[in-house]
Design brief:
Blueprint lengths: L1 E2 L4 H4 L1 H9 L3 H9 L2 H5 L2 H24 L3 E3 L2 E3 L7 E6 L4 H14 L2 E6 L2 H9 L5 E2 L12 H6 L18 H11 L4 H17 L21 E2 L10 H8 L1 E2 L2
Parallel strand pairs: 4-5
Antiparallel strand pairs: 1-6, 2-3, 7-8
Helix pairs in contact: 2-5, 3-6, 9-10
Length: about 250
């Protein structure tokens, strides 16, 4: 889940940090992977998770207070008395992921607004950076290159329609991105990408949600052949279309 750094309430690093402490990640993972029954079978595990959530919420509360956000009149407010409200855009299917998160935010006095709309309308808002929170799946690549400039570079932050939805403007990140793009060897690229990854995670730009280790594809058995050796990283649809063939 990415949040828009251009918004005043999202710019303070302390406020960004509270995003990481508030989510109930175990509950989100349970709901998405449908293994809740297995984990709920151990009361000790759930009790530990509840205690961790309470401790994280206390940390988030302290960080927010340090950034000038305090609870009064039934909501978390800044010095001007403005309530803290975040809107989550979704084209469908994200309720089960964002609901536990909003429940945790409510304990801090932060109001969550779930806004569902057709993706075409959401795309228009994303293109002009008119959003608070939005979930983006970024496909992996064995050799990331110039696309990093569009996704994380300062110059793209003010270009409407760019992939820099978060609005990242950081000279350190610009330097690391340029180093990664200019790498000449595999070891150079890996080392520079790892450094970039550490800096991006340290800045709390995103809220991790979940991932699946498998692709789910339905096809008619016996009609298609596929390569025996699978790539390490791939998008299921592209891989099927570009490499499968009809059995003779």
């Amino acid at each position: 889940m990415q949040h828009n750094q251009r918004l005043t309430q999202m710019q303070d690093e302390l406020v960004q940090a509270r995003e990481m402490y508030a989510p109930d990640h175990p509950q989100v993972v349970e709901q998405e992977t449908r293994v809740a029954a297995l984990r709920q079978g151990s009361p000790q595990v759930r009790a530990l998770q509840d205690e961790e959530l309470r401790e994280n919420l206390r940390k988030a509360r302290d960080l927010l207070a340090e950034a000038g956000w305090t609870y009064r009149d039934g909501a978390l407010r800044n010095a001007k008395g403005e309530p803290f409200i975040v809107e989550y855009l979704d084209s469908g299917g994200g309720e089960r992921l964002v609901a536990p998160y909003f429940q945790a935010l409510a304990k801090l006095g932060i109001a969550g607004d779930y806004r569902r709309a057709d993706f075409a309308l959401i795309r228009k808002r994303l293109d002009v950076f008119d959003f608070d929170l939005f979930t983006v799946r970024i496909p992996g690549s064995e050799a990331p290159g110039s696309e990093l400039l569009d996704r994380f570079g300062s110059e793209s932050a003010d270009i409407e329609g760019s992939s820099n939805l978060m609005g990242i403007k950081d000279p350190a990140i610009d330097a690391l991105v340029n180093l990664a793009v200019s790498a000449h060897t595999r070891p150079e690229l890996v080392a520079r990408l790892r450094a970039l990854d550490r800096v991006l995670r340290h800045n709390y730009f995103v809220i991790p949600q979940w991932y699946s280790s498998t692709f789910r594809i339905a096809y008619r058995a016996g009609k298609f052949e596929q390569p025996k050796v699978m790539p390490q990283y791939y998008q299921a649809e592209d891989w099927v279309i570009s490499t499968w063939w009809r059995k003779q």
